[in-house]
Amino acid sequence: MEKTLISVIGPTAIGKTKLAIELARHFDTEIISSDSRQFYKEMGIGTAVPSREELAMAKHHFIQHKSIHEAYSVGDFERDALSLLDRLFEKKDIVIMVGGSGLYVDAVTKGLNHFPKIDKDIRTGLNRQLREKGIESLQEELRTKDPVYYKKVDLANPHRLIRALEVCIGTGLPYSSFLNKETDPRPFKTISIGLTSERETLYHRINKRVDMMVDGGLIEEARGLIPYQNLNALQTVGYRELFNYFKGEWSLDFALSEIKKNTRRFAKRQITWFKKNEQTHWYGYKTPTLQIITDLDPVL
């Protein structure tokens, strides 16, 4: 059998973890997480890390394997995931990958554009600029340095802005000039399985998940991370809003409503990203796993 990676994708709160575990158990294989928010051991509740019971049902990799104090880029993940896949495919014909971080999914399945090594002091300076002058200053600088990428990037995502700007500053060339280069072919086949739902259903699931996170201790988890709130890993939905609450800038009710709103916006961006892959097989989130397995059989 040709070595095959089954990539389970879709927006947050749609049910990817459940499907991935059921597929892994059926094919007697292991799971690679491509959810970049779940890499960090200090961030469990706010990133919806699989429960102990779920983790026990199938072997998972890249779940809480790093600290928020460690630098870990998408390039690092590409290298580590491909190395792990080489080892897994020695004993398995099929491996499952699951996650909603589109860039990280693409890094494994398609390959990244490769960039020169950049002085770490540049990123440090850009993070300071973000704290002191706000995201608008990064947006304006990118508009000047790379108007092509400025029109494509998610301008609300400070990670993407800082990554592009550090390349612009470190090389003297536009970030966009490094994109769309030839990448190394993958020694495995990828089958992409996407989960979807009506928008109102998805939004209801997102709102319910946030409520469950709060009941599970999200506020206490975020409070313990206040000393580290400026780290890159914590510039993410679910934590940024609570830091504003802790600083007395927002009420708790408003912070929680912002988490729900920003998570819904994040889900919309995920859907836009994943819809670009015309090879993805889309299923309603209630589709029985047995039906998906049956559909997979002819293409495996």
Automatic annotation (TrEMBL):
Q: Which cofactor(s) are needed, names only? A: Mg(2+)
According to UniProt, the name of this protein is tRNA dimethylallyltransferase
- Per the UniProt entry, what is one GO biological process? tRNA modification
Pfam families for this protein: IPPT (PF01715)
In terms of InterPro entries, this protein maps to: Dimethylallyltransferase, IPT, P-loop_NTPase
Q: Which organism is it from?
A: Pseudozobellia thermophila
- Binding annotation for ATP: 10-17
Assembly and interaction partners: Monomer.
Region entry Interaction with substrate tRNA, spans: 35-38
Under the GO molecular function aspect, what terms does this record hold? ATP binding; tRNA dimethylallyltransferase activity
Superkingdom: Bacteria
Q: Could you tell me the gene encoding this protein?
A: miaA
Reactions that this protein is recorded to catalyse: adenosine(37) in tRNA + dimethylallyl diphosphate = N(6)-dimethylallyladenosine(37) in tRNA + diphosphate
Q: Gene3D superfamilies annotated for this entry? A: 1.10.20.140, P-loop containing nucleotide triphosphate hydrolases
Family statement: Belongs to the IPP transferase family.
- What's its top-level EC category? transferase
Q: Which residues bind substrate?
A: 12-17
Question: What this chain does, per the record?
Answer: Catalyzes the transfer of a dimethylallyl group onto the adenine at position 37 in tRNAs that read codons beginning with uridine, leading to the formation of N6-(dimethylallyl)adenosine (i(6)A).
